[in-house]
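Need the bound structure for adenosine-5'-diphosphate, inputs here:
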Amino acid sequence: MSGLKVLSVASEVFPLVKTGGLADVAGALPGALAGEDVDMRTLIPGYPAVKDKLGGAEVAHEYPDLFGGPAQVLAGRAAGLDIFALDAPHLFDRPGNPYLGPDGTDWPDNGRRFAALARVGADIGLGAILGFQPDVVHAHDWQAGLAPAYLAYAGQPAPGSLITVHNLAFQGHFPVSIFWELGLPDRALSFEGVEYFGGVGYLKAGLRLADVVTTVSPTYAREIQTPEFGMALDGLLRARGGAVHGILNGVDEAVWNPATDPALAQTYNPLRIDMRARNKAALQSRLGLAHSVDRPLFGVVSRLSHQKGLDLLLHVLPRIVEQGGQLGLLGSGERWLESGFGDAAASRPGSVSCVFDYDEKLAHLFQSGADFILVPSRFEPCGLTQLCALRYGATPIVSRVGGLADTVIDGNDAALAAGVATGFQFAPPSVEALANAIDRAFEIYGDRAAMRRMRLNGMRADVSWRGPAKRYAELYRSVARTAA
Ligand code: ADP
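Answer from helper R.:
Posting the output first, comments after.
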């Protein structure tokens, strides 16, 4: 089959609106899939930031009343993407974070807002827009989780459906009262449908009713089928086991290219890897760390949350500094971690420095200048930081979970002897295991040839979207159907 049409339904898309990895994936997939003969268009909410960037949009469909107000679907192009924007001012004409109000908590009508998004995704799947009849609707995360439900209960031929879980921790669980607004038949409020612990589960609905489920790494696909990582959905995921697939994310090779990156003090490539030293010096200056070529510089670029395991690092920090290492951290998030790292930096000036901010440009300098990038997550669906680190020759030190397990080749004796190691893995995510991995990193750092080899291996690893795009295209073809 050729010329497959796929509608991607997502609540954020890079570079139009981003809070996390979901946006990166939703933004990169359409371009990556073009090479697979897949025509992907993306439905996103018409937040102000999206409408601003959508030049020359046309009205492709209208709703006199969509969850309490008039709405229309605008079709246009922005940032190289074919976009359908759901222009529903009563739901989405709110600046700032897509999910949170000014007080930093969820908008009280998120259930309605994202039911509307999913509903419109399903309508487009069923043929609402002339000239774009999808063969597959691809829903991302709980915000689009009801789209497969609307398709399943449409009572008419529907396109194939796929849902991707980017992080099982976010489930879209709402009180049962929302059900009566959804416009689904009564029988949908069941174990086989959208019911979840007495309420309505948007992610649960998608996981139960989509033709196939994907998540963003093979290891996470297995982990979420266990009680330890399944966050109460492991039973359902086990029941759907044959339909659950893990496909790794890639990185955008144009955005993350050390040979052309304007955010670096010095561009470089694998043949000129020693030139990274200038970026290390620039990063040390930027962070106010002592200038040193010889001290290994450990970097962190992360959300500061329990998931990311950075409290473990706080315990290991004295040991890093005692052995002559430095730590630079770029991150924002939970207050207790900010204050822990803030105290550590204050008590070890020149050796530990933190920037509590979200700064894309500085993240690039970290990846190009740090010797090691630490990702000690307790769980990690895929992880992008370690992929960027590989590409930039910053050797990743990661816990052996989820996508971290799938993308880093641990520098154990066998891998070192074979010359294939790209970083270090440790398990379980504990202070002791992390400390041990850091000791191993110090050891390699002391062996210039081995360190160089490991960096080069990382830079040569394929972290592109090419392989993942092929896998998505195969899955789309396996479920493709048209409603027409
Ligand atoms: P998650 O989506 O769970 O936050 P990922 O590793 O999948 O984690 O993706 C996060 C992306 O955002 C990575 O590319 C990471 O480098 C980037 N990032 C995280 N925190 C920051 C920050 N404070 N400043 C700049 N980039 C950041």
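Comments: The mean pLDDT is 96. The longest strand covers residues 55-63.
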